[in-house]
Specification:
Length: about 350
């Protein structure tokens, strides 16, 4: 069977999204199903992860996810034209969108955070999709309750933390800390938006006032615009010497080093990216700080240190608790490692065999 796959807009080095998990999962599926031909619709050069797979080809296309109109035209007009001469039997949409006009059966990954315009068009076309994929149970409930999709048309896929992530020894930790943080302990967080970044910086200021230490804060910007925003704010930030914006060009492997050497990971998001980041931290044996309501929704209350609300003082209290209470920190790390050991991750995609 010939399967078209939309991977436009997906980057394996965007650490504020699930892109790197999707990328890795797709790579495994292509190699696991040599009986199918995969045609990738990509807006970047040929993905190196898939080079060498005889059942994989690609089509380069222009794509603008920052414009709703441009994105809509791509899915409704541009992409169907690209696929017409190929005539795939199935169209796998991994970028969180879908085509309302195509006659090709679609399997689509559902993204929870829809804008008002996206929600309007989504309601009109949601039933045209043959099967919906979700990465977590909350997304499945949303499809059922808000959009009336039956359970039979919803499939859950598991994102597996990379085998390159694991608890590392003291010497490796010191080496990576020396490379990325000047040899000191650090909190690590992905800076996803302006508001949450400011709140985290204010929380870190309170932490430094309460606890005189060499602790640093490492921020990974989600994009170039947000990087510029952070750099501008840090020019007048009192503790700017203790805040590091991770340099441009962070690779996935370097990300694993950052995670496995961190004192704690601070999660500011509440969606699938934060969920999978918490699993990476758990696999690395690293402490996690997360919003209370998010931790409860994900059933990980015993694995993370929680802050009650997204205010600087609440986040600062969680930072201080992790820093001062090694017993609680260690117990929650052990709970995270045990949790992952008891999960049966499903890597094979059964829908390819059924359609």
């Amino acid at each position: 069977m010939k399967i078209a796959v939309t991977i436009v807009g997906i980057r394996d080095t965007n650490f504020s999204s699930v892109g790197r998990f999707i990328w890795k999962w797709l790579e495994g599926e292509i190699h696991a199903h040599p009986e199918h031909q995969f045609v990738l619709l990509s807006d970047i050069a040929q993905p190196t992860s898939f080079v060498g797979a005889p059942n994989c080809s690609w089509i380069k296309t222009k794509y603008d996810r920052n414009s709703f109109l441009a994105e809509k035209i791509w899915y409704e007009v541009t992409a169907p034209k690209l696929l017409t001469p190929i005539q795939p039997a199935l169209w796998l949409q991994l970028s969180g969108r879908y085509s309302g006009r195509t006659r090709i059966p679609q399997i689509c990954l559902f993204e929870e955070n829809l804008t008002r315009f996206q929600r309007y068009f989504f309601k009109k076309n949601v039933h045209k999709v043959k099967q919906w994929l979700v990465l977590e149970n909350l997304a499945s409930h949303q499809l059922e309750e808000q959009f009336g999709i039956s359970k039979e048309r919803i499939a859950s896929i598991s994102m597996v933390p990379s085998s390159e992530i694991y608890p590392i020894d003291y010497n490796l930790q010191q080496m990576y800390k020396g490379t990325h943080a000047g040899g000191t302990e650090y909190f690590l967080s992905v800076a996803d938006d302006d508001k949450s970044s400011i709140e985290l910086l204010q929380a870190f200021s309170q932490f430094k006032k309460w606890q005189q230490s060499n602790m640093k804060l490492l921020l990974v910007p989600s994009n170039a615009i947000h990087r510029s925003f952070l750099e501008e704010k840090l020019r007048t930030y009192k503790y700017r010497a203790d805040v590091i914006v991770v340099p441009v060009g962070l690779t996935v492997h370097n990300w694993y080093h950052l995670v496995s050497s961190a004192y704690a990971i601070v999660l500011l998001g509440v969606g699938a990216p934060a969920h999978f980041m918490s699993m990476e931290a758990a696999k690395a044996g690293v402490s996690v700080i997360a919003l209370d309501s998010f931790a409860k929704a994900m059933h990980m209350e015993d694995r993370v240190t929680r802050y009650l609300e997204t205010t600087p003082s609440s986040i600062a209290e969680a930072l201080l608790l992790v820093y001062k209470n090694e017993k609680i920190k260690g117990e929650r790390i052990q709970n995270g490692l045990l949790f992952l050991q008891n999960i049966n991750f499903t890597q094979s995609f059964p829908l390819f065999k059924e359609i």
